[in-house]
What we know:
Elements: H1 8-17, E1 35-37, E2 44-46, E3 50-51, H2 62-77, E4 82-84, H3 92-101, E5 110-115, H4 120-133, E6 139-144, H5 150-162, E7 166-172, H6 179-189, E8 193-197, H7 209-216, E9 219-223, H8 230-234, H9 251-260, E10 267-268, H10 275-283, H11 292-304
Parallel strand pairs: 3-4, 4-5, 5-6, 6-7, 7-8, 8-9, 9-10
Antiparallel strand pairs: 1-2
Amino acid sequence: xxxxxxNRREVVAAGVxxxxxxxxxxxxxxxxxxHKPIPASGDSLPVIGLGTYEVxxxxxxxxxxxxxxxxxDLLTASGGSLVDTSPMYNRSEKVIGDLIxxxxxxxxxxxxxKVWTDGEDAGKRQMQRSADLMQTSVIDLMQVHNLRxxxxxxxxxxxxxxxxxxxxxxxxxYTASAHAALxxxxxxxxxxxxxxxxxLGEREAEDRLLPMAQEQGVAxxxxxxxxxxxxxxxxSGVALPEWAQDFAASWGQFFLKFIISHPAVTCVIxxxxxxxxxxxxxxAGHGNxxxxxxxxxxxxxxxxx
Length: 305
């Protein structure tokens, strides 16, 4: 497998050439992706990560690995790191491991996966299998997927954290109807991270979960940033407003910058297997972020469509 080894200058140049970034001088400063802190440790994460739902669920053919290897190279070359997956995503963990086995550098990656089963023994087997499939001795973030058997799995996650096999703990869900339950379990189990749905089309997390995360010192990952494509459908045929072009060069960046500019949000994880989409997504991690007044303008504009 031969993948292109991108460096940061090439990622920025590709973004400029494709119109995803303004034609700015490629200084060291503007090549740096924005980072936000992880409250549990004081370390930080780049604000743009990568989701793997569906797009990494492929056979590990040379062609499929070539494309996904380029995606991971783009992520890390831009300064990004977080890759989110799950046993629920079928072959995705294996594809990540196959890429690492074929030469993708494990060191810059922040590997986040989930446990999605019932019972202590089954959970331990699944977590170990995830580590084996991804060819890693340490999982950076282990999340209880959709709050399934949380008490049992959080006990194991804490034990494995103590043993150095897991770095951070987390809880996830992807629907607004589960936000109340996620809030209760945040308070009970005090995870290091939560993962939740949030976008211009699904703003319910603003009501309770995001303020709770700030109060409790919990890092926040965001799934469904484009609301499964519905946001792009909503702006089909609509020009990007001129007032937004100081911080976004595409609708994708507009949507992502709204998310990462929320003070509670640590990292957003759009899924893609297309290199031009990866370049566009990563561009949202650079440059200016909307201030509260601009975020309100963005929300009002989208609501008016």
